[in-house]
Amino acid sequence: MKEIQMVDLQSQYKHIRRKIRKRVKNVIKHSAFINGDETRIFQQNLAHYLGIHHVIPCANGTEALQIALMALPLEEGDEVIIPAFTFISAAETASLLGLKPVFVDIDPQTFVMDPKRVEQAITCKTKVIIPTHLFGQCVDMGAIMEIAEKYKLYIVEDACQSLGADYILREGSGQLQMGPFTYDYRCTDKGIRKKAGTIGHIGCTSFFPSKNLGCYGDGGAIFTDDDDLAARMRQLANHGSTKRYNHRCIGLNSRLDSVQAAVLNVKLPYLDYYNRKRQEAAAFYDRAFISCMQLKVPVRCQYSTHIFHQYCLLCRSERERNALRFHLENMGVPTRVYYPKPLHLQEAFAYLGHKAGDFPVSEDICKRIIAIPMHTELSAKQLRYISSAILDFFD
């Protein structure tokens, strides 16, 4: 049996290498390495896939979040609501911009932001909510948009782990008037689907190699239906410039290079197929573990599809989780912990004054969660071996 990996990018590459080589050679031939045709084609292709007007490619998912926040009319000290259980990027960018990260706890079943906690955290300084669609499943965006409408807040969706996931919209429609901007409140018809990242005011994603749609380096993108916001974000991503050597504001050098865009142009048509392969692997795991009382399999929401950027199990205790990891390592099965420490207990955010016990659900999940191999190239033999190795531990 082939060596088991958390993510097998080499095997995935073998199926598309001729197409990759052809497009990359074409980039080299024309030497348009920055803002070339491949980048322009990719932003058009991704906008069509997402069903959104504007896609702004950028250097990575973290800078996508930073540019999104920079584009909004925010002031130093304004508060940004972020889940305590996620990667650091959203809280990191908020802090760098002089904004205050306000952490909220998560739903204990799905691990995504709990809308009830969001509303409880709102103050007169709150300006933005950043819902993170974690592990491939959406936050309840209907509830989040209702809160945004009630309190006149911006929504910046962190879709860095969920590109291609669908949110099933609730009934109701309207508009949000926020400063100079008017936004459609796009929960229009029951059962209508929207892609993760296209429901709020701005969506952000990452093309880190291990993502469901990953390039062969760093990359990211921002999306919106608002023309003014799109123009501002394009300017911010290009040194604050719309015309060479004419800088209207302080911006970033944040661009998706043409080689990475060429890779993404090859892989984007496969994205739904890749997501189905992950869902099939997840269904295999579900069947294998459903009767194991010591483990809890991922919960699927009725309002969202799940594309399984990660497949995470919950053990009964931290000690059991760590023992299982040791057992699987000896069996040749890699594992990861996403995430070993919630954001409010990270040293980087000690200045916020949080302590253990402030967000008990996030703290508990960090102690018991374990991610097992999940990617598009898992064979039936590998899936059987991984699940058997896990079940053997509990026998």
Can you characterise this structure?
The chain is α/β, with parallel strands linked by helices and 395 residues long. It has helices at 9-30, 37-50, 61-71, 89-96, 115-121, 141-151, 227-237, 258-267, 271-289, 318-330, 360-368, 380-394; strands spanning 54-58, 79-83, 100-104, 126-129, 154-158, 166-168, 174-178, 181-185, 193-195, 202-206, 220-224, 241-243, 246-247, 311-314, 369-372. It is built from 12 helices and 15 strands. The strands form 5 sheets. It has a 7-stranded mixed beta sheet with strand order 1-11-10-5-4-2-3, with helices on both faces. The chain starts with 8 loop residues before the first helix and ends with a helix. Residues 185-189 have low confidence and may be disordered.
- The spatial strand order of the largest sheet comes to 1-11-10-5-4-2-3
Largest sheet report: 7 strands, mixed
β-strand amount:
15-25%
For the record, the CATH class of the largest domain is: Alpha Beta
Shape descriptor reads globular
CATH topology of the largest domain: Aspartate Aminotransferase, domain 2
Domain count: 2
N-to-C SSE string, H for helix and E for strand:
HHEHEHEHEHEEEEEEEHEEHHEHHEH
Estimated helix fraction: 25-40%
**What is the CATH architecture descriptor of the largest domain?**
3-Layer(aba) Sandwich
What is the rounded Rg? 21 Å
Ends apart, CA distance between termini: 24 Å
Structural class designation: alpha/beta
By DSSP, the count of extended strands is 15
Q: What is the count of helical runs?
A: 12
The overall pLDDT, averaged over residues, is 94
Give the low-confidence spans. Answer: 185-189
CATH H-level name of the largest domain... which superfamily? Type I PLP-dependent aspartate aminotransferase-like (Major domain)
